[in-house]
């Protein structure tokens, strides 16, 4: 398993990983029209290249035996103490095998090296699998927040944070654990 900063030539592979994972995992959580709208908005070659070129987003690609298997995207935020995990997607057949946590640790290390004390993310409030995995990886729920993303779509999210300057405190899961 290897994690490396993605090159511009990796962006089409990352876009296909995103499309595969979203279409497999999100139909029970998000309206199909919203899935396609958000995929087109975030993963068009132009949008990805522009966000990388402007330094808005950095992508980290995780490969297993050379095969692209998961990725994360991250960025600074306007708050000097915060870094944001913007995207985290693991191929469906590789989920729940520790790869998401490896990427969280990788991005946490990058943020810590930049003297950030908090890693923040947003996650759909109906995405119980991701919320559970974030809680188990040391995040806590800070607040609920709704974001109007245009075209009549609203993202109904939790904002979750992970302290980078102290060992994580565990927060009891608000959901029944199936495992
Ligand atoms: C959410 C996601 C990134 C997590 O990555 P992952 O590689 O599957 O998770 P990990 O294997 O690193 O698991 C981390 C912890 O969460 C737990 N976990 C993972 N999937 C879980 C599930 N479906 N239900 C309950 N717990 C789960 C793991 O058991 C582990 O906890 P433990 O070490 O205490 O046992 C990944 O499942 C994914 O890509 N999901 C679909 C897309 C998505 O929702 N992305 C997040 C958008 S905000």
Essential attributes:
179 residues, 33% strand, Aminopeptidase, alpha+beta, binds coenzyme A, seven-stranded mixed β-sheet, 7 strands
Q: How does this structure look, described?
A:
The chain is an alpha+beta fold. It has a single domain, classed as 3-Layer(aba) Sandwich (Aminopeptidase). It is built from five helices and seven strands, in the order βαααβββαβαββ. It has a seven-stranded mixed beta sheet, with helices on both faces. α1 (11-25) runs antiparallel to α2 (32-43). The longest helix has 15 residues, at 11-25. It is globular. Coenzyme A binds at residues 21, 25, 88-90, 95-101, 123, 127, 129-130, 132-133, 136-137, 179.
Number of strands: 7
Q: For this entry, what is the oligomeric state of its chains?
A: single chain
CATH class, named: Alpha Beta
Tally of domains: 1
Low-confidence stretches: none
> CATH superfamily membership, which one?
Gcn5-related N-acetyltransferase (GNAT)
Bound molecules: coenzyme A
Write down the overall geometry. Answer: globular
Order of secondary-structure elements: EHHHEEEHEHEE
């Amino acid at each position: 398993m290897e994690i490396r900063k993605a090159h511009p030539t990796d962006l089409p592979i990352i876009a296909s990983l995103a499309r595969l994972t979203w279409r497999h995992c999100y139909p029970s959580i998000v309206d199909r029209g919203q899935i396609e709208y958000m995929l087109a908005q975030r993963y068009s070659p132009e949008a990805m290249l522009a966000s990388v070129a402007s330094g808005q987003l950095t992508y980290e690609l995780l490969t297993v035996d050379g095969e692209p298997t998961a990725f994360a995207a991250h960025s600074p935020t306007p708050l000097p103490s915060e870094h944001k995990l913007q995207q985290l997607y693991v191929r469906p057949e590789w989920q729940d095998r520790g790869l998401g946590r490896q990427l969280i640790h990788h991005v946490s290390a990058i943020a810590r090296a930049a003297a950030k004390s908090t890693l923040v993310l947003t996650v759909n409030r109906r995405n119980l699998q991701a919320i559970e995995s974030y809680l188990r990886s040391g995040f806590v729920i800070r607040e609920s927040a709704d974001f109007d993303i245009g075209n009549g779509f609203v993202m109904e999210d939790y904002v979750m944070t992970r302290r980078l300057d102290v060992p994580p405190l565990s927060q009891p899961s608000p959901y029944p654990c199936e495992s």
